[in-house]
Amino acid sequence: MSTKIAIFGVGLIGGSLALCFKGKPGITVVGHAHRPASAEKYINHGVVDHATISIKEAAMDADFIFLCVPVGNLDEYLTKLSQIPLKKGCVITDVGSTKASITAAAEKLEFKDVYFIGGHPMAGSERSGVEAATPLLFENAYYVLTPPPGLPDKVYESLVLLLAYTRAKIVKVDPIEHDRIVGAISHLPHIIAVALVNQVCDYNETNPLYRRLAAGGFRDITRIASSDPIIWRDILLNNRGVMLQMLSDWNKGISEFIAMLETEDGEGITGAFAKANDFRSELPEHRKGMISSTFDLYIDVPDHPGIIGKITTRLGENDINLSNIQIIESREDVPGIMKLSFRQEEDMERAKKVLQNMDYSISL
Ligand SMILES: NC(=O)C1=CN([C@@H]2O[C@H](COP(=O)(O)OP(=O)(O)OC[C@H]3O[C@@H](n4cnc5c(N)ncnc54)[C@H](O)[C@@H]3O)[C@@H](O)[C@H]2O)C=CC1
Ligand SMILES: O=C(O)C(=O)Cc1ccc(O)cc1
């Protein structure tokens, strides 16, 4: 039996899904691009079997359609699809970071023998575009589905079965509840990271030492501030009701900190840290979360010249994928530490062995 999968928007998420499906028994993956140059790029990157700029050509005969465009374009594509004769039993799904508006829009459209199931793979990165796509992106991550009431079980099961190729863990969530939860654990942290980086950027105008000293931890906790501006404009505007409420709660929390500092309320400050510590210690460990973490190694580097090339070459020879490299110099007169980041724990473990064999001193 053959299965045709059409992917609209073959970027980070669409491209990663395409790579999970392409080459699997009986599956053909077709990518839809809104520009001819993008269609060519999808083919050159080998992520799809075919690419087209025609919506009709991509969607016709498809068994599954994945909408992987920015949230602000989802409605438009869904409406266009509702005007095309699709294959009987076709399942349309999306990967948008918000679920309430797209599931409501789908319910209003008249699809005949075609089903819409909202989706959100809760994994990703600050990178974008097909260049960043990887079939490992969703492994062990949660993948939310929001099936509408009355959806036949076997239709839902067919999508779940296909998504097994992503190795993600499927979880059913109500769309409105979904938007509140991701608002708190993903959208709010993105706003805070951007506001924090921009605050330091403004201070840096007065003294460029801010940027020079902002290595290490500051860089790590603000990684998500480098996310794609269009993708995030659409997410935040779409979830603005939830975000406005959460930012108002945020303001309350910050005001409490201001009051504690003004009144020198040390007990209040220790209480706030203790509460956060308790909650954080109960978060699941070693689980792929929404905001992805990297696996890092720190290496003492007595003198820099040539060492980066030597280490990266050796890791490359061992097929170890490095996601980032950074030299941390806390003082200008002391040797540095090299931080190597990996997306996969297995890559980090293998790198550790390779570098230990090269006699480097390593810490995690
Ligand atoms: N970035 C992330 O980590 C995650 C993103 N998402 C959601 O996945 C969707 C795609 O995001 P990414 O893959 O990160 O973005 P991306 O920028 O890597 O890919 C977007 C794709 O949509 C295409 N596209 C852009 N504008 C378009 C338009 N006007 N019409 C048609 N196609 C257009 C682009 O050419 C590109 O192929 C978004 O809805 C986002 O909310 C979901 C989970 C994680
Ligand atoms: O960069 C990160 O770690 C992310 O936060 C990725 C991400 C972005 C959007 C989503 O809807 C889900 C995950």
Automatic annotation (TrEMBL):
Keyword flag Amino-acid biosynthesis: yes
ACT domain segment(s): 296-364
Chain segments annotated as coiled-coil in the UniProt record: none
Stated name of the protein: Prephenate dehydrogenase
GO biological process: tyrosine biosynthetic process
This protein's encoding gene: tyrA
Catalytic activity: prephenate + NAD(+) = 3-(4-hydroxyphenyl)pyruvate + CO2 + NADH
Keyword set, alphabetical order: Amino-acid biosynthesis, Aromatic amino acid biosynthesis, NAD, Oxidoreductase, Tyrosine biosynthesis
Pfam families: ACT, PDH_C, PDH_N
Documented EC number(s): 1.3.1.12
Family: Belongs to the prephenate/arogenate dehydrogenase family.
GO molecular function, one term: prephenate dehydrogenase (NADP+) activity
Domain called Prephenate/arogenate dehydrogenase: residue spans: 3-291
Pathway, per record: Amino-acid biosynthesis; L-tyrosine biosynthesis; (4-hydroxyphenyl)pyruvate from prephenate (NAD(+) route): step 1/1
